[in-house]
Amino acid sequence: MAIVAIIQARMTSTRLPGKVLKQVLGKPMIGYQLERTRRCHALDEIVVATTTNATDDPIADYVSGLGIAVYRGSEHDVLSRYFEAAEAHDADIVVRMTADCPIIDPEVTDMVIERFLEFIPPLDYATNGIPHTWPIGLDTEVMTFKALRTAHEQTHDPYDREHVSPFIYKQPDRFRLYSALCPINLSGERWTLDTPEDLEFLTRVIETLYPEIPDFGYRDVLALLEQKPEWRSINADVGAKVRRWERQRFTGDLQPALGKRGDDT
Q: Kind and range of the H or E element at 117?
């Protein structure tokens, strides 16, 4: 099976335009994410899925210069962009990430993929983001190409098409789903890049950790925040607003997947 990570990215974010190419220590934020994603052991390929807009040419040029594949598709129909990118790269399993996660932890991403692969009968979809128990910014979704194709062919809901996976995870009676929970609830941690406040927070984390521990993981970030607890207040208000919005958007939990893990057979 070909396991392909597809990372969506665009320059026209409304709250922080050009966020994925904002620089810290001379490197764009998406550069940190791609460097870290490359350390995932479970992936066969990485593709950055951006749009056909000329405004996204800088993303395509930068990513291509790193030797990473680029697919360009619809700006607003992100589901079609994912499906076409997955089809173009012969993906059997699609790992979905967004380019606003510059300090994503490859250990966590590998864990979600491994959980997805362990189940017998096989899963259709797994995530560590519903419900949120991991820091926001470590989000990983894994789905079969078949499930992605079904969503692409059957949903016409604009929300589903913008957010890619809701058609799948909102139907536990139809798709086999799994939620990879964090051993402790870290949902109050906000490590994603969506606002100027997020940029300030992430800049401090990267400038502190990267020179000494370039392969730092989420435990290193937690340890740093134990030393600098006041940093959490930088984007705390943003996180509170997002959590309120998410509770309105989706209040249920994923139904636990039925069946045995592969190592139990």
A: helix 106-118
Contact call for residues 194 and 15 (beta carbons, < 8 A): yes
Question: What's the mean pLDDT in 245-249?
Answer: 44
Per-residue pLDDT at 238:
83
What is the number of H-type helices and E-type strands within the chain?
Answer: 10, 11
In 3D space, the residue among 262, 234, 265 whose CA is nearest the CA of residue 118 turns out to be 262
CB burial readout 72-84, b (16+ within 10 A) else e: bbbbebbbebbbb
The mean pLDDT value for 200-213 works out to 98
Question: In whole angstroms, what is the distance from residue 178 CA to residue 116 CA?
Answer: 7
In the numeric block, which tokens belong to residue 262? Answer: 């592969």
**What's the CATH number where 90 sits?**
3.90.550.10
Residue 180 and residue 203: Cα distance in Å, rounded? 28
Domain residue limits at 173: 3-264
Mean pLDDT, rounded, for 65-74: 98
Bridge partners (DSSP) of residue 115 are none
Q: What phi and psi, each to the nearest 5 degrees, are found at residue 132?
A: -70, 115
**Overall domain count for the chain:** 1
How does pLDDT run across 209-236, given as a tens digit for each residue?
999 999 999 999 999 999 999 999 999 9
Residue 253 pLDDT > 60: no
